[in-house]
Amino acid sequence: MVRYVPRLADGQRVRLAWPLALFRLNHIFWPLDPSTGKWGRYLDRVLAVLGCLIFVQHNDAELRYLRAEASNLNMDAFLTGMPTYLILVEAQFRSLHVLLHFEELQRFLQRFYTTIYIDPRAEPDMFRRVDGQMLVNRLVSAMYGAVISGYLISPVLSVINRRKDFLYSMVFPFDTEPLAVFVPLLLSNVWVGIVIDSMMFGETSLLCELIVHLNGRYLLLKRDLEESIQRILAERRRPQMARQLKELIIATLRQNVALNQFGEQLEAQYTVRVFIMFAFAAGLLCALSFKAYTNPMANYIYAIWFGAKTVELLSLGQLGSSLAYTTDSLGSMYYHTHWEQVLEQSSNPLETLRLLRLIQLAIEMNSRPFYVTGLKYFRVSLQAGLKILQASFSYFTFLTSMQRRQMSN
C-alpha cells in the first residue's frame, strides 16, 4: 500500500518540499499510487473508515465538554475547547470530501506533476522564482509544527505530574481512569493531532504549489510568445510573416486552453474544501485571539496558532490575486503581438485578415481573469483574507465586551 509518488513527464521523481513530503504520509488526504492492488485499496478504505470513526468519537467528547462549560456560563473554559473543536469539524468535512473524490485527486495530481509542474532542469530561473513564493508557506508549516508540538508534549507532562490528562478539552460518557481505556484514547488523541496538523499545513502547501506553478506556466507562455514574435520580426520574411504569426498564436492558444482547462480542474477539485477552510477561519481566529489576549503566557500555543492561520490566509490570498492578475493580462498579451508591424510589412492580405480575426478571438477567450473560488461564493484573494481578519476582529471585540460585562457582574 504505497502513497502516490509524484513524477515528471519523463518519469523523474519530484523532490517534494518538506511540508508536502510530510503531507504525503497522511493516509486520509493523500491518494494511493495507481500501482496499488485491490487488497491494498481495500485496506486503505478500512483504515480511512476507522480514522473517520475516531474523528466522530473526538467530536462527541469535545462537544460534551463545550456543552458542559456553556451550561456553566464559563466563557473562558468554553473558548479553551473551541479552537480544537472547530478545526476537528473542519477536518471531518474536508476529509469526507477528499475520500469521496480520492481517484479524481490522484489523476489530478498526476496531470499536475506531468504537465504543469515546472521542471527545475528545464526552467531553473522560473523554478527558483516560483519556489521562492513558497517560502512564506513553509514558515506557516513550521508554525503549525510548533503548535502540534505544544499539544504532543502534554502526555509527557502528565506522566511527570502523575495525572491522566488528554491532549484536548474532552468529556467522555464513560470512565477513562483505567489504563486499558485511557492509553488507547490518549494514542487516538496523538493520531488525530498529527493527521489534522498535517492537513492544516499540507493541503494549503499543495494548493499554493498548484497556484504558483500554474501562474509560472502562464508567465512562461507569455515569455515564449514574445521571444518567438521577436524572431519573426527579425527574420522579416514578408510574404510569410502573417502566416508565421498566425501559426504561432494558434500554438500558443492551444497551450493557453490546456492551462485554462487545468485551472477549471483545480477549481473543481478544491472549491468545496476552500469554502470549508474559509468558512471556519473567522470563528477559529476569533477564539484563538481571545485566548491569546486573556492570558498570553499560559496560552502561547493559541498565539502561535493565530499567527500561523493569519499568515496562511494572507499568503494564500496573495497567491490567488497574483494568478488572477496574470490571467487578466493574457488578453493584452495577444493584443501586444506586434500585429500592426506585421500588417505593415506583410504582402499577403488574406493571411493578414485571418490573423486579425484570430487575435480578436484570443482576446475574447481571455477576457476574464481566473480565480480559485469557494463554491463561487467568494474568490481566493488578498481582499478575501483581509475580510476574514476583519470579521474575526469584530467577533473578538464582541467577546471581550461580554467578558467585561461578566466580570462586572
UniProtKB/TrEMBL annotation:
Its membrane topology: Multi-pass membrane protein
Residue ranges of the TM segments: 135-159, 179-196, 270-290
GO cellular component assignments: plasma membrane
Keyword Zinc attributed: no
Source organism: Drosophila persimilis
Location within or outside the cell: Cell membrane
Family statement: Belongs to the insect chemoreceptor superfamily. Heteromeric odorant receptor channel (TC 1.A.69) family.
Cross-referenced InterPro entries: 7tm6_olfct_rcpt
The keyword NAD is annotated on this UniProt entry: no
Coiled coil: none
Protein name per its UniProtKB record: Odorant receptor
Lineage: Eukaryota, Metazoa, Ecdysozoa, Arthropoda, Hexapoda
GO terms for biological process, alphabetical: signal transduction
